[in-house]
Amino acid sequence: MDSLRQTLESAANIFLSSSQTTVTQDQRRDAEKIFLQFRRSNFSFDLYSYLIEHSQSHYVIYQTLTALREGIVKEWLVLSDETKEQVVQYLLQYVYGQYQTLSIHVREQALQILVVINKRRKASKQPQTEYTVTNALYNLIQSPDNEQYQFGLMLLSTFLNEYSCSNGNEAGLTLDQRYSVKKDFESNELKNIFELLLNKLQLFLQNDENCLKLLELTLNSIEKILLWNFSLPATTTRHRHHLITFTHAETSDFRPPQTWKQLVYDQRLIEFFFHVYKTIKQQQHLRIANVKLCYSLRSQILRSLSQLACLNGPLMSDEQCRLQYLTTFCAHFVETFPPSTSTFDNLSECFDLASIISNLITLFSVKGFCSMSNDLCHEFLRLMAHITIVLCRCTTSHQQVNYDPAISKEAFDRILQAWARLLSGIDFGRFENLRTLAIEIFDSYLNSHLHSSSNNIVNEHEQDEDENNEDDDRELFSEQLISIGLFGRHIIDHALPLLTRLLLDRTQKLCTTMEMLTTTSTTVNVRDLDKINDDLHWLLLICGHVLTEEYLDSDSECATIPEAIMNFSYSQVKYCNLEKCCQISQLVLSKSIDLSTEAMQDVNPVTQCVVTVLKLSEIERYLSRIGLFDHVSVQVAISLTWFIKRLAANYLGFNADNYKQVSQALSLTLGKGSEVLEFLTKEFLSKVVSNLHMWTSEINVIKETADLFVTLSLRKDSSNILIRSDLFWSLCDQVVSNVMPLQLISEEIKRQLLKGITTACLNSSNDEDKVRFDRSILTVLQQRLNSITTTIKTLLEQMNYEFKVKQNQHVQQTVLPDDSKSVLLSHCCSALESFFSETMLSQVSSLLNSYCGLIEGGSRSSQSSYLFERSLSTLEDVCELFDFYHSYSDIIQIVLDLFNVYSENILVYLNLTHSKIFYSFMLKIIQLFSKCNHGKKSSEVNSDEDYNQHIYTLLTCLNHLLAKDFIDFSNDKSTVVYQDGESSTSSHHIQTDNVGDVVLFGLVTCFPFIQNDHLLKIPSISLRYYKLISTLCEQHSDSIFRLLNLDFFIPFLQTIKTGIDQYGNEICKMCLETVHGLALYVAQQHLQDEKSAQLQLFLDYLIDQVLQTNSPTLDLFETYGSALFALLCAYPQEFLRLCMNIKEQYQNNEQLTSIFDKFVNGIPIQQYNRKTKTNFLEKFEVFITDIRRVTKR
């Protein structure tokens, strides 16, 4: 034994040595082999205990403990109960006697052995009296000796880690066993330990401050238990899902089982935690030296309370107990933090309180909250509002330095989301103070974002911050703005008039400032102007979120006026003067916009907002005309355009049938058929045009402008007004002609504009509009594109002709003047070279991008087939350009993007005939891509990135083609009958009515480029590739075996093997699904050709992975097992032969042979179906668990 100890310690010194000169890599590998051999040796507790006691090397002790753990798991069935108990008692004494001096990894390994033995005993259903480790834990937790108690907490931490299933399967149990022992542990031991810890906590609370450290350790353990991810009841599939998701979950609800009911619903539990908090807070002034620790303890208790507020699961089924729990919690909550006197000396506590409130409202729902007494609800709402206002001020104030602004913002967002849930279901009339509180919160948020004379210093600091902040406020504070908008709609009679008044005030101030600039020589204070613009920016954002609701689809055509706005506007008929609204409408029509108080008095607030927006747009255009554009705020321009877009989406031409009661004032100004509606639509179009001319250098303004234009085009009423406007067709001509200043706009924005133009035109039911669209847009673009391709084709034909004539003259020895020959050829060459100039390349690029926009605009229209038919000649020309510009990566990319847009947006609407035509074009473009890139090399700097993007786009396009199998909106119900053909990869054998054939041809085309350039190492390309082959083999395995040559099939399978070996779980799962699809086809068709023989190798490979590695992981188990079972059904005889070979290989290992016999004999090789697969997966799981236990994998 001593010689082995010396050998292991020498190996440890070599292995751990940091010197690269005295220790070679070979010596380090030899040392590692020594430890591996030691761990694989036969189990000997005497040897292990000797090494633990006599070795001076912590690493040797760690490896010895590892060998002990692995040996116990491996030999569990043959080890006697006495030996197991001897190990338990030895390790308990060893660790407790030296736990303060042991290294952390040694101590954790020793404690893990104890818990593994406990876990195995529990899985074996041994009597409770034999759970000596559990009993030892109970005794240590209850011990009055502080050292024993701390040791018990260490052992408890190991229990929690091992039973949580978040680590590896160190105990060698099956999934069902792991779930079973975990559930049993939760129902019994965990509950008992939690009660013992609560008793200890109460004991420490009564002692002096010397117990503060123990108090902290106890709270840590309690918090871990409260954060425990309790087991879900139900099937094996849910077991596996539960175990997989637990590993990735940072937090979870508190879901104790029914055995916890009495403990959890005991009112003293909640009361105790609040009592602990109040006690520590009251005694904190006596412990000045431990102020920081006391703050930490208070935070721990609040986090525990936050988790108790997350009560969920089976206990929630008892409605009466649930309500009593909520009532008790809220009563102690408002008692501990009375809203009238609560001041937060530590703002982090305010964040914890926000979390508690959010959890309570989320888990107990608004219905549960409303079930409490009115007085308690009132107090709770007051406290909630108080915390909200404090957080609001913290979030917007930049002078506080004792907290993290990011945490403050997160807490504020959470409590606003809680308010949003509450406001969505609560009865405002029941709670008298709710309206007042909502007004306070709304006003507080408004004041915190607006400038005033009373807080100049703060706002100057904010201004400095804003200058350095490039983030978009609308995106950064989107959650807050949505919630504040909901607040505003619930107090709409207060919020909307207030917002309108402030918006009018700031607009008038801006008008006054602009008049000073234009009419006097007075210098304007830039900071004052910035404050006005900043206020306008925030007022537009807040007002926009109050007036409109959020929709998941930004292009939603079903957006409506919120019910609260419509009802408020309807009720204003008593106070608003309809005649005055008509006068305002007339002023708007005459473009005489007056913002005076007299003019706006008794006018509907929504109408006032519209008028104000028009005035702001007029100011922008006016300043641009007189040369003072530098004074226009970019921020306001973005927000103003966004506000108009929201207004257009929700209000313009609204349908009165969608509302129970309709406001006459809104109908007058914004309703369908009103004169003001037509005027506003044209004004908003004018805003689009002016923005495109004024803001070409500001991409964010231009982007919002393009979105506004698309929104106007999507609305049927506004689109009908647009296409009757000369300004619309003027804009169409400018976009199509690509004149200045639209040339300065990015191609992405131009695509959006063409999308809007196409959408508006195709929305029209008037044939004349379609004819004009055809004549002004489609025909113009087609003629330009066709002119380019025809000219190129003519020049190429002329050059070929001249070369042939020259060759004939040389053969016939005819002498012609050299000048006449050279001039003609020189002219053709010069003309062709002009097509490669920057101007022409830009023109071609713009044309192709225009077509991308056209196709995107037709994607939601019933005219998709019409658009496709009209663009057939365009597709021919595009293919010609693709061939001609094959060396220009930018042009190639746009062409591929165009086909990608077709396949994504138009293909799903095409019938079978049109689909076949598109597939033929797709085949042609794939052939051209292959021809132009075969053997191609480039010296351009970004050639590799461009080429990779080409491959990525092509793979994306092929994925979209496969989606036609799942999504088909065409009215063609005809079916396609596929017939087998000879095996080939030539396009002559491709069936263009079979999308699988087309996709496979594209895959074969891309494959050499992917393989030769190692493109699968690029994450985006590898993900697209493996997703493509997975879907292809699932839906069209017949195409693979019918068309793919063996020369391609073998490397194709190799990429699948590479995906399983070298990539993460997502791609590995796709590869296994690919194998499953291919194997299932072989099994169903009973194939026995060369390709099926190559696929058969995966049977050996997957079984070898199980025996030699740690595959499959838990989240891949079902996919792995399904693929293996499909292979087993496809090759049953090969499976039996393989099993015999493995048994012979491991004939000296009786355990392994027994495990394999049990697995093989338990598998009835039957036809593949759900029942047989489920049966196989159950036996496969047991097999894997036993294999890993024996082989120590």
TrEMBL record:
GO terms for cellular component: cytoplasm; nuclear pore. It is found in: Cytoplasm; Nucleus. One of its GO terms (biological process) is protein export from nucleus. Keywords: Cytoplasm, Nucleus, Protein transport, Transport. GO terms for molecular function: nuclear export signal receptor activity. Its main location: cytoplasm. InterPro entries: ARM-like, ARM-type_fold, XPO4/7-like. Belongs to the exportin family. This is Exportin-4. It comes from Didymodactylos carnosus. The lineage of its organism: Eukaryota, Metazoa, Spiralia, Gnathifera, Rotifera.
